[in-house]
Amino acid sequence: MNETNSYARQRSGFGIWLDQHLYSFVSSLGRLVRKPWATLLTIGVMAVAFVLPLGLWLALANVEHFAGNVSDSREIDLFLKPDIDVARAQVLVEQLRDRADVAKVQLRTPEQGLAEFRERSGLGASLDALEGNPLPSLLQISPRGDEAGLVAALEHLPEADLVQHDAVWRDRLRGWLGFGERLTWVLAALFGLGALLVVGNTVRLDIQARREEIGVLQLLGASDGFIRRPFIYLGAWYGLVAGALAIALLAAAAAALAPPLAQLAQSYGSPFALAGLAPLQAGAVLVGAMIIGWVGAWLVTGHFLRQTRPTQT
Protein backbone atom coordinates (compact mmCIF):
# COMPACT_ATOMS: atom_id res chain seq x y z
CA MET A 1 0.00 0.00 0.00
CA ASN A 2 2.87 2.38 0.88
CA GLU A 3 4.59 1.58 -2.44
CA THR A 4 1.36 2.37 -4.27
CA ASN A 5 1.02 5.74 -2.51
CA SER A 6 4.67 6.55 -3.22
CA TYR A 7 4.24 5.72 -6.92
CA ALA A 8 1.09 7.85 -7.04
CA ARG A 9 2.89 10.81 -5.47
CA GLN A 10 5.77 10.48 -7.93
CA ARG A 11 3.42 10.23 -10.87
CA SER A 12 1.45 13.20 -9.59
CA GLY A 13 4.64 15.24 -9.25
CA PHE A 14 5.71 14.36 -12.77
CA GLY A 15 2.25 15.24 -14.05
CA ILE A 16 2.42 18.66 -12.40
CA TRP A 17 5.87 19.26 -13.87
CA LEU A 18 4.64 18.24 -17.32
CA ASP A 19 1.55 20.45 -17.03
CA GLN A 20 3.72 23.42 -16.09
CA HIS A 21 5.96 22.92 -19.11
CA LEU A 22 2.98 22.45 -21.41
CA TYR A 23 1.35 25.61 -20.08
CA SER A 24 4.57 27.60 -20.51
CA PHE A 25 4.99 26.18 -24.03
CA VAL A 26 1.48 27.22 -25.12
CA SER A 27 1.34 30.53 -23.23
CA SER A 28 4.67 31.68 -24.70
CA LEU A 29 3.32 31.03 -28.18
CA GLY A 30 0.25 33.07 -27.28
CA ARG A 31 2.48 36.03 -26.37
CA LEU A 32 4.01 35.92 -29.83
CA VAL A 33 0.59 35.96 -31.47
CA ARG A 34 -0.72 38.80 -29.29
CA LYS A 35 2.11 41.12 -30.45
CA PRO A 36 2.38 40.36 -34.19
CA TRP A 37 4.33 43.44 -35.29
CA ALA A 38 6.90 43.32 -32.52
CA THR A 39 7.23 39.57 -33.06
CA LEU A 40 7.66 40.01 -36.81
CA LEU A 41 10.41 42.60 -36.34
CA THR A 42 12.33 40.41 -33.89
CA ILE A 43 11.98 37.30 -36.02
CA GLY A 44 12.87 39.21 -39.18
CA VAL A 45 16.11 40.56 -37.71
CA MET A 46 17.06 37.10 -36.43
CA ALA A 47 16.22 35.48 -39.77
CA VAL A 48 18.47 37.90 -41.66
CA ALA A 49 21.25 37.19 -39.16
CA PHE A 50 20.86 33.47 -39.91
CA VAL A 51 20.50 33.88 -43.69
CA LEU A 52 23.79 35.73 -44.29
CA PRO A 53 26.24 33.06 -43.03
CA LEU A 54 24.02 30.24 -44.30
CA GLY A 55 23.88 31.82 -47.75
CA LEU A 56 27.66 32.21 -47.85
CA TRP A 57 28.13 28.61 -46.73
CA LEU A 58 25.74 27.35 -49.44
CA ALA A 59 27.51 29.48 -52.05
CA LEU A 60 30.87 27.98 -51.12
CA ALA A 61 29.41 24.46 -51.18
CA ASN A 62 28.05 25.05 -54.68
CA VAL A 63 31.35 26.56 -55.87
CA GLU A 64 33.19 23.45 -54.68
CA HIS A 65 30.63 21.26 -56.45
CA PHE A 66 30.89 23.31 -59.65
CA ALA A 67 34.68 23.11 -59.55
CA GLY A 68 34.40 19.33 -59.48
CA ASN A 69 36.36 18.59 -56.33
CA VAL A 70 39.51 20.53 -57.10
CA SER A 71 41.55 18.59 -54.58
CA ASP A 72 41.26 15.45 -56.70
CA SER A 73 41.92 17.19 -60.02
CA ARG A 74 45.60 16.31 -60.48
CA GLU A 75 45.86 15.59 -64.20
CA ILE A 76 49.12 16.49 -65.98
CA ASP A 77 49.14 17.50 -69.65
CA LEU A 78 52.31 16.58 -71.58
CA PHE A 79 52.55 18.25 -75.00
CA LEU A 80 55.02 16.45 -77.26
CA LYS A 81 57.28 18.12 -79.77
CA PRO A 82 55.73 18.66 -83.23
CA ASP A 83 58.13 16.21 -84.90
CA ILE A 84 57.03 13.31 -82.64
CA ASP A 85 54.70 11.07 -84.66
CA VAL A 86 51.84 9.00 -83.26
CA ALA A 87 53.82 5.75 -83.29
CA ARG A 88 56.56 7.25 -81.11
CA ALA A 89 53.87 8.77 -78.85
CA GLN A 90 52.32 5.28 -78.40
CA VAL A 91 55.69 3.88 -77.34
CA LEU A 92 56.05 6.71 -74.83
CA VAL A 93 52.56 5.97 -73.46
CA GLU A 94 53.55 2.36 -72.75
CA GLN A 95 56.74 3.49 -71.07
CA LEU A 96 54.91 5.89 -68.81
CA ARG A 97 52.29 3.30 -67.86
CA ASP A 98 55.08 1.14 -66.46
CA ARG A 99 56.03 3.83 -63.96
CA ALA A 100 54.93 3.30 -60.35
CA ASP A 101 53.93 6.96 -59.95
CA VAL A 102 51.57 6.94 -62.95
CA ALA A 103 47.98 5.77 -62.58
CA LYS A 104 46.67 6.34 -66.11
CA VAL A 105 47.86 7.74 -69.45
CA GLN A 106 45.66 8.79 -72.36
CA LEU A 107 46.93 9.79 -75.80
CA ARG A 108 45.22 12.48 -77.81
CA THR A 109 46.49 12.51 -81.37
CA PRO A 110 46.80 15.71 -83.42
CA GLU A 111 43.80 14.62 -85.51
CA GLN A 112 41.66 14.14 -82.40
CA GLY A 113 42.76 17.50 -81.02
CA LEU A 114 41.95 19.28 -84.28
CA ALA A 115 38.53 17.63 -84.49
CA GLU A 116 37.70 18.66 -80.92
CA PHE A 117 38.91 22.20 -81.55
CA ARG A 118 36.85 22.39 -84.74
CA GLU A 119 33.72 21.26 -82.88
CA ARG A 120 34.11 23.65 -79.95
CA SER A 121 35.39 26.75 -81.74
CA GLY A 122 33.08 26.80 -84.74
CA LEU A 123 35.99 27.85 -86.97
CA GLY A 124 35.71 25.00 -89.43
CA ALA A 125 36.17 27.14 -92.55
CA SER A 126 39.27 28.84 -91.15
CA LEU A 127 40.78 25.54 -90.10
CA ASP A 128 40.25 24.12 -93.58
CA ALA A 129 42.44 26.90 -94.94
CA LEU A 130 45.40 25.72 -92.85
CA GLU A 131 48.10 23.64 -94.47
CA GLY A 132 48.53 20.53 -92.38
CA ASN A 133 47.77 20.07 -88.70
CA PRO A 134 49.68 22.41 -86.36
CA LEU A 135 48.58 20.62 -83.15
CA PRO A 136 51.01 18.26 -81.37
CA SER A 137 50.25 14.95 -79.69
CA LEU A 138 49.03 15.31 -76.12
CA LEU A 139 49.43 12.86 -73.23
CA GLN A 140 47.01 13.27 -70.35
CA ILE A 141 48.59 11.66 -67.29
CA SER A 142 46.92 10.89 -63.96
CA PRO A 143 49.61 10.63 -61.24
CA ARG A 144 49.64 8.18 -58.36
CA GLY A 145 50.94 9.70 -55.12
CA ASP A 146 53.04 12.88 -55.14
CA GLU A 147 53.00 14.46 -58.59
CA ALA A 148 55.95 16.83 -58.06
CA GLY A 149 58.57 14.18 -58.87
CA LEU A 150 56.59 12.98 -61.88
CA VAL A 151 56.33 16.51 -63.27
CA ALA A 152 60.09 16.95 -62.93
CA ALA A 153 60.72 13.64 -64.73
CA LEU A 154 58.34 14.54 -67.56
CA GLU A 155 60.03 17.89 -68.10
CA HIS A 156 63.34 16.09 -68.72
CA LEU A 157 61.95 13.77 -71.40
CA PRO A 158 63.50 14.41 -74.82
CA GLU A 159 60.06 14.15 -76.44
CA ALA A 160 58.52 16.76 -74.10
CA ASP A 161 57.76 20.22 -75.42
CA LEU A 162 55.53 21.55 -72.61
CA VAL A 163 54.35 20.10 -69.29
CA GLN A 164 51.20 21.77 -68.00
CA HIS A 165 50.33 21.17 -64.39
CA ASP A 166 47.73 23.23 -62.49
CA ALA A 167 49.05 22.56 -58.99
CA VAL A 168 49.61 26.24 -58.22
CA TRP A 169 46.15 27.22 -59.42
CA ARG A 170 44.63 24.31 -57.52
CA ASP A 171 46.42 25.25 -54.32
CA ARG A 172 45.32 28.85 -54.67
CA LEU A 173 41.71 27.87 -55.23
CA ARG A 174 41.86 25.48 -52.28
CA GLY A 175 43.28 28.33 -50.19
CA TRP A 176 40.48 30.68 -51.20
CA LEU A 177 37.87 28.04 -50.43
CA GLY A 178 39.48 27.44 -47.03
CA PHE A 179 39.46 31.18 -46.35
CA GLY A 180 35.81 31.36 -47.36
CA GLU A 181 34.95 28.50 -45.02
CA ARG A 182 36.75 30.20 -42.12
CA LEU A 183 35.02 33.49 -42.97
CA THR A 184 31.68 31.67 -42.90
CA TRP A 185 32.32 30.36 -39.39
CA VAL A 186 33.40 33.81 -38.18
CA LEU A 187 30.28 35.42 -39.65
CA ALA A 188 28.11 32.66 -38.22
CA ALA A 189 29.55 33.34 -34.75
CA LEU A 190 29.07 37.09 -35.07
CA PHE A 191 25.55 36.94 -36.46
CA GLY A 192 24.65 34.18 -34.01
CA LEU A 193 25.77 36.48 -31.19
CA GLY A 194 23.69 39.25 -32.73
CA ALA A 195 20.62 36.99 -32.84
CA LEU A 196 21.24 36.00 -29.22
CA LEU A 197 21.36 39.68 -28.23
CA VAL A 198 18.15 40.40 -30.14
CA VAL A 199 16.35 37.62 -28.28
CA GLY A 200 17.80 38.77 -24.98
CA ASN A 201 16.67 42.35 -25.50
CA THR A 202 13.18 41.25 -26.53
CA VAL A 203 12.82 38.99 -23.51
CA ARG A 204 14.21 41.76 -21.29
CA LEU A 205 11.43 44.09 -22.44
CA ASP A 206 8.87 41.37 -21.73
CA ILE A 207 10.31 40.90 -18.24
CA GLN A 208 10.21 44.64 -17.58
CA ALA A 209 6.55 44.72 -18.58
CA ARG A 210 5.82 41.90 -16.11
CA ARG A 211 8.10 43.07 -13.30
CA GLU A 212 5.26 43.43 -10.77
CA GLU A 213 3.89 39.97 -11.62
CA ILE A 214 7.35 38.46 -11.17
CA GLY A 215 7.75 40.22 -7.82
CA VAL A 216 4.45 38.79 -6.56
CA LEU A 217 5.44 35.27 -7.65
CA GLN A 218 8.77 35.60 -5.84
CA LEU A 219 7.01 36.78 -2.66
CA LEU A 220 4.72 33.76 -2.89
CA GLY A 221 7.77 31.51 -2.97
CA ALA A 222 7.81 30.58 -6.67
CA SER A 223 11.12 29.10 -7.76
CA ASP A 224 13.36 30.77 -10.35
CA GLY A 225 12.78 27.83 -12.66
CA PHE A 226 9.01 28.32 -12.52
CA ILE A 227 9.33 32.03 -13.29
CA ARG A 228 12.02 31.60 -15.95
CA ARG A 229 10.30 28.78 -17.85
CA PRO A 230 7.78 30.84 -19.93
CA PHE A 231 10.49 33.28 -21.00
CA ILE A 232 12.83 30.47 -22.05
CA TYR A 233 10.11 28.94 -24.20
CA LEU A 234 9.46 32.40 -25.62
CA GLY A 235 13.10 32.66 -26.70
CA ALA A 236 12.97 29.15 -28.16
CA TRP A 237 9.90 30.10 -30.19
CA TYR A 238 11.67 33.18 -31.52
CA GLY A 239 14.63 31.09 -32.61
CA LEU A 240 12.55 28.32 -34.15
CA VAL A 241 10.35 30.64 -36.22
CA ALA A 242 13.36 32.76 -37.25
CA GLY A 243 15.19 29.62 -38.38
CA ALA A 244 12.18 28.52 -40.43
CA LEU A 245 11.95 31.97 -42.01
CA ALA A 246 15.68 31.90 -42.82
CA ILE A 247 15.27 28.54 -44.57
CA ALA A 248 12.31 29.92 -46.53
CA LEU A 249 14.34 32.97 -47.59
CA LEU A 250 17.21 30.76 -48.73
CA ALA A 251 14.80 28.60 -50.73
CA ALA A 252 13.29 31.69 -52.37
CA ALA A 253 16.76 33.04 -53.24
CA ALA A 254 17.76 29.66 -54.69
CA ALA A 255 14.58 29.52 -56.78
CA ALA A 256 15.32 32.99 -58.16
CA LEU A 257 18.97 32.23 -58.98
CA ALA A 258 18.61 28.65 -60.25
CA PRO A 259 17.30 29.33 -63.83
CA PRO A 260 19.97 31.87 -64.93
CA LEU A 261 22.71 29.85 -63.22
CA ALA A 262 21.60 26.65 -64.96
CA GLN A 263 21.58 28.49 -68.29
CA LEU A 264 25.10 29.78 -67.63
CA ALA A 265 26.34 26.29 -66.71
CA GLN A 266 24.71 24.85 -69.82
CA SER A 267 26.64 27.32 -71.97
CA TYR A 268 29.83 25.72 -70.58
CA GLY A 269 28.49 22.23 -71.21
CA SER A 270 28.06 21.47 -67.51
CA PRO A 271 24.99 19.79 -65.95
CA PHE A 272 25.46 21.87 -62.79
CA ALA A 273 22.34 22.65 -60.76
CA LEU A 274 22.18 24.87 -57.70
CA ALA A 275 21.91 22.78 -54.53
CA GLY A 276 20.01 23.98 -51.46
CA LEU A 277 19.83 22.74 -47.90
CA ALA A 278 19.33 19.02 -47.41
CA PRO A 279 16.53 17.99 -45.00
CA LEU A 280 19.07 17.02 -42.34
CA GLN A 281 20.86 20.36 -42.74
CA ALA A 282 17.57 22.26 -42.53
CA GLY A 283 16.71 20.38 -39.35
CA ALA A 284 20.11 21.28 -37.88
CA VAL A 285 19.47 24.96 -38.71
CA LEU A 286 16.13 24.84 -36.89
CA VAL A 287 17.64 23.17 -33.83
CA GLY A 288 20.59 25.57 -33.76
CA ALA A 289 18.32 28.62 -34.09
CA MET A 290 16.06 27.33 -31.32
CA ILE A 291 19.08 26.76 -29.04
CA ILE A 292 20.31 30.32 -29.68
CA GLY A 293 16.90 31.70 -28.71
CA TRP A 294 16.75 29.43 -25.67
CA VAL A 295 20.22 30.43 -24.43
CA GLY A 296 19.60 34.15 -24.98
CA ALA A 297 16.37 34.05 -23.01
CA TRP A 298 17.93 31.92 -20.25
CA LEU A 299 20.85 34.31 -19.74
CA VAL A 300 18.78 37.48 -19.68
CA THR A 301 16.01 36.00 -17.55
CA GLY A 302 18.47 34.70 -14.98
CA HIS A 303 20.10 38.13 -14.71
CA PHE A 304 16.84 39.97 -14.22
CA LEU A 305 15.51 37.42 -11.78
CA ARG A 306 18.51 38.06 -9.59
CA GLN A 307 17.87 41.79 -9.84
CA THR A 308 14.20 41.47 -8.89
CA ARG A 309 14.55 38.86 -6.15
CA PRO A 310 13.13 40.29 -2.90
CA THR A 311 15.62 41.09 -0.15
CA GLN A 312 15.63 38.63 2.77
CA THR A 313 15.21 40.21 6.22
Automatic annotation (TrEMBL):
The cellular location(s) given in this protein's UniProt record come to: Cell inner membrane
Q: Which Pfam families match?
A: FtsX (PF02687), FtsX_ECD (PF18075)
Any stretches that span the bilayer, and where are they?
A: 37-60, 183-203, 236-258, 278-300
User: Which keywords belong to this entry?
Assistant: Cell cycle, Cell division, Cell inner membrane, Cell membrane, Membrane, Transmembrane, Transmembrane helix
Domain (FtsX extracellular) ranges: 75-147
Positions of the ABC3 transporter permease C-terminal domain = 186-307
A GO CC annotation recorded here is: cell division site
The topology of this chain with respect to the membrane is: Multi-pass membrane protein
Q: Name one GO biological process term.
A: cell division
Q: What does this protein do?
A: Part of the ABC transporter FtsEX involved in cellular division.
Q: Which NCBIfam families match?
A: FtsX_Gneg
Regarding protein family, the annotation reads:
Belongs to the ABC-4 integral membrane protein family. FtsX subfamily.
Protein known as: Cell division protein FtsX
